[in-house]
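Chapter review: from sequence to fold.
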Amino acid sequence: MSEMDGRDGNDSTEPAPEQEAQTRREFVRRMLLTSSYVVPAVVSFTTEGVYGGQSPSGMMMFMMSPPGMGMPLGMGMMMGSAGGWDWAGHGGGFQSCLSRTSMLPGRELCVSILTNATDGMANAWSDGVIKILKTFADNSMPSARARPWTRRWWSLWGAADLVPFGNKVMIAEPGLLNPFSGAEEITVSAGDQGVISLGGGYGSHGEAAHLIRGRDGKVREVWLGGARLVPEARAKAEMKKRYGN
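The token string follows.
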């Protein structure tokens, strides 16, 4: 007779599911107690083990990295937060490519970024995409008066994206990883008129903003304080005429 469970050593009987689940729970508990970089977490387990059935929460147990050593890991998953939205996923890389996939629990969203370089900015771009999505989730649909304030516009200093929410318009910077970071805002008062109600020290806080329309009724120019913005093709033509090739 075997000393284990008093059963014969040749007995191939599998342990009961409840016993196997208990064994795995004990394994994880011991692992937590012996790790120096673990944050307590509530984890649910199924009878299939740590990761089975429809409950992958065990794979998402939060485990801290040593200070200054980068992104925390779960049991097989990278974990993080972007703009206050938590995500879990993983990255991958080969010669000539780098990627990251981020699942956002409870939001029915998954973001995958694939780059064609080993030094591609998959991680930074993934966080940027999540922050953009969160900005749209945090704001309401544009009102009728704010809806014309949209599209990308150009000046000598670069591009600006007008993104309307409710009765306000955010002036996003497309060159940033998070275009809405520190974005100035326009409060639309009536028709094609508004005021820059939120602006930085180098901006035009408190100054007027307005749209200029053509004979066809389409918006042709955007004025933000004393700055004039036009469509890309027009900006190119004007700069070429002024400065040559």
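Two observations follow directly from the output. The CA atoms of residues 147 and 164 lie 6 Å apart. The two ends are 92 Å apart (CA to CA).
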